[in-house]
Amino acid sequence: MTEITIRPEPRTTALTLIRATALDHVAPGGRDDEPPLPNRQMHDDLTSTLECWRAAGTLREDSLLLAKWLAVELCGYLYESLDQDNGRFDRWLRDFGDEVCQSQTHPHPAGPTAVEIMSVVADGLGTRSDSRTATEQLVRIGVPYLY
DSSP label at 30? Predict the structure, then answer.
């Protein structure tokens, strides 16, 4: 009998991570001034997903798409909370990018890469989202990192 492994989709994984993180922040029993306890289930689920992608030979592309979906959701949330003000959003993105770059203590470009992805997503805010725009965004995000 052949074992069938279902490969988790990056968008689904992103939304699952966001949901788990949101639930962690409203979990009862903790003090407001203390961070939530580490979520082992989230860690195990994400590790399993990454291992599945590696086994399927899609880790590079799927993890990049995961970062893209997380950036899309964060950008959408922030854009709405800043009253759809592009100037305020741009200022936040610059400040956040500076903070990420300054706090990064290892040579991996994950922080700056995330900010670059968010910049591409932010460029598309307020425009009609058709398949061509989505494709152009993916190309702008992916080309520098996939080769």
Answer: S
